[in-house]
Automatic annotation (TrEMBL):
Organism: Cocleimonas flava
Signal peptide span: none
Keywords: Heme, Iron, Membrane, Metal-binding, Transmembrane, Transmembrane helix
Protein name, UniProt field: Ubiquinol-cytochrome c reductase cytochrome c1 subunit
Requisite cofactors: heme c
Principal subcellular localization: membrane
Subcellular location(s) per record: Membrane
Cross-referenced Gene3D superfamilies: Cytochrome c-like domain
Cofactor notes: Binds 1 heme c group covalently per subunit.
Amino acid sequence: MSNSIRKWIFVLLVPALVVFILGSVSGGAGHGAALQSANIDLHDKQSLQNGAKYYVNYCMGCHSLKFSRYNRMAEDMGLNEEHGLTGDDVSTLLKENMIFTYDEDGKQDKVGSLMKNAYSPKAAAEAFGTSVPDLSLVGRSRGTDWIYSYLKGFYLDSSRPMGVNNTVFKDVGMPHVLWELQGWQEMEHAEGDGEHHGEPTLTLSKPGKMSPGEYDQVVRDLTNFLTYVSEPAQLSRKMYGVFTLLFLLLLFGVSWMLEKEYWKDIH
């Protein structure tokens, strides 16, 4: 094999190997309990819309998304002219269902505003003992499976200030804000065989408004939404990556044939 062919193989394979390794590392960002697979689909517009709805109603009272804008979110989720909605329709939908904050003059925030909340860091520190984090990048810092497992991992723990703990985030300081949907879970330890302790499991002691299957879908939609928010460009970035790899593959073939043509008289 000639040196030039080896060089092209190196150029094509090394970046793919690096991406694979980084993906493996980021996928294991959880600690404690084994993470469950979220199995989300970023191109599922209905799932993203449901996730945004539940986030605004249950999470955004404390957790802002300061790097996202309402109108950009709506566009990416299919609330646009392609689906029969005018700009005024989208503005009305956002103002009536998503935007609950007001500026210094008492006017409702505009659709182009950043998704901040009215909960100041000082008030959060007084209530919870620490400032409440912005969740714009949690999908990248923690990972999709971590978010999904975390939202399903709350259980009753009377020793904690908020009355709950979490299988993924030990000694969590956040209350279980989705309790009315899921209900309350309790931690149970199965009996071991004398030498080994049984694996702890969560059991639903008091059902919520939703069945376990319905709640699981809500959590998956929320996870989908937070994963999208952490990097909106990934809706198109992966497609560009596929086209780039196909181009490089085509370029490799053309370059290989050119090399054979240039050097055929010497070899």
